[in-house]
């Protein structure tokens, strides 16, 4: 399984177009902290499986020379994860489609409220449990998303390897006991800030300090933080076994 981080930013991307903080200023110079909204491409045995469709999807796929997709999986219904579904619609219109797109059921209902025309072109299907697709097993599970309600994560398994992609979560204590977080070769976890100062009730995504306490308990073999806002400078050192994603990061061995 080859993984490509098409985007590694949070819901507003970095730089914030209105912001002059040090990370946003850096993102405008060398670009080490420049990042688009988050998406992951999973490739195995010639199949290309997309996780999430952010607003920059078209540019991200062009940048990585992706000219075909075999299926899409959406974690939840928020704009930073689905704003690019209109591009998938166009893709299918010109390639003849349909493109199967799987969305955990609670998010599926909310997505169709916003994009009622989707099923006419994209083969959108609600997901209630594990699904095998192109030799990869996808297991969705719901995670608390703080002030933003709920989101979903995927456990993704193939060839004896397992990763969890959980870009949007806050306070996932039940999930920590969950079998779906056990024996992970890789945990991809969303962290918008290093330490977020906003009141708890206004927050929606883990910060790095909280995420490090979670990985100390879950003990994945490797952790990559993604969904990074302007509260994270990716040059700041992390403990062994942890790293920050960047746009375009490709992992062949993990
Ligand atoms: Zn998000
Ligand atoms: Zn979200």
Note the topology:
Layout: E1 2-7, H1 22-27, E2 39-44, E3 47-51, H2 57-63, E4 71-73, H3 79-82, H4 85-95, E5 100-104, H5 105-114, E6 123-127, E7 131-133, E8 136-144, E9 150-158, E10 161-166, H6 173-176, E11 186-190, H7 208-218, E12 223-226, E13 242-244, E14 250-251
Parallel strand pairs: 3-4, 4-5, 5-6, 10-11, 11-12, 12-13
Antiparallel strand pairs: 1-2, 1-14, 2-3, 7-8, 8-9, 9-10
The protein binds zinc ion (2 copies).
One zinc ion binds at residues 11, 78, 80-81, 167-168, 227.
Task: Please give a quick description of this structure.
By secondary structure, the protein is α/β, with parallel strands linked by helices. The chain contains 7 helices and 14 strands.
Structural class by sheet pairing and helices: alpha/beta
Bound small molecules, deduplicated: zinc ion
Shape designation: globular
Continuous helix count: 7
CA radius of gyration is 17 Å
Q: Reading side by side through the largest sheet, how are the strands ordered?
A: 6-5-4-3-2-1-14
Give the assembly state of these chains. Answer: single chain
CATH architecture annotation? 4-Layer Sandwich
CATH fold assignment:
Metallo-beta-lactamase, Chain A
In CATH terms, the superfamily is: Ribonuclease Z/Hydroxyacylglutathione hydrolase-like
């Amino acid at each position: 399984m080859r993984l490509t981080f098409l985007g590694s930013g949070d819901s507003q991307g970095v730089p914030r177009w209105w912001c002059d903080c040090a990370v946003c200023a850096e993102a405008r110079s060398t670009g080490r902290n420049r990042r688009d909204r988050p998406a992951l491409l999973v490739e195995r045995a010639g199949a290309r499986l997309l996780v999430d469709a952010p607003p920059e999807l078209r540019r991200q796929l062009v940048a990585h020379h992706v000219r075909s997709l075999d299926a899409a999986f959406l974690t939840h219904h928020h704009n930073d994860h689905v704003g690019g579904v209109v591009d998938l619609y166009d893709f299918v219109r010109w390639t003849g489609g349909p493109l199967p797109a799987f969305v955990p059921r609670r998010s599926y209902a909310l997505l169709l409220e916003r994009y009622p025309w989707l099923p006419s072109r994209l083969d959108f299907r609600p997901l209630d449990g594990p699904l095998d697709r192109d030799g990869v097993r996808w297991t969705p599970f719901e995670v608390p998303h703080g002030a933003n309600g709920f989101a979903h994560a995927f456990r993704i398994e193939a060839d004896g390897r397992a990763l969890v992609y959980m870009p949007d979560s806050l306070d996932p204590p039940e999930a920590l006991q969950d079998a779906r977080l056990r024996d992970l070769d890789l945990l991809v976890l969303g962290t918008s800030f290093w330490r977020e100062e906003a009141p708890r009730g206004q927050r929606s995504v883990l910060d790095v300090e909280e995420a490090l306490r979670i990985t100390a308990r879950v003990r994945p073999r490797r952790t990559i933080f993604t969904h990074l806002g302007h509260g994270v400078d990716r040059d700041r050192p992390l403990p062994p076994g942890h790293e920050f994603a960047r746009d375009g990061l490709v992992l062949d061995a993990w």
